[in-house]
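Researcher: Next entry in the queue.
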Amino acid sequence: MAYAIIKTGGKQYKVATGDVIEVEKLDLEEGKKTTFSDVLFYADGKDSKSGADALKGIAVAAEVVAQKKDKKVIAFKFRRRKGYHRTVGHRRKLTQLKITGITL
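Model: Structure for this entry, 104 residues:
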């Protein structure tokens, strides 16, 4: 089974055809297609490729499934005996992608 490691949003993801992954928010509408040409590694059952020269021309195609928010993360700051406490939180915005293929 072929897989690739791609880089998007400052993070790396191991993907294969048919996978559904969540990445940092991309400015795309649901149902739109995109390609990732920043492939760091590619491997199938018998062969593997890495390095800029070997990976030239390899791209990963994906389709946007949904735009959503992640679970809420609470950051609580506290200093004992000082009367200081602070609660802040956030929810990351994510794009859910379905990998449609890896093209050579």
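Model: The chain has a mean pLDDT of 92.
Researcher: Noted, moving on.
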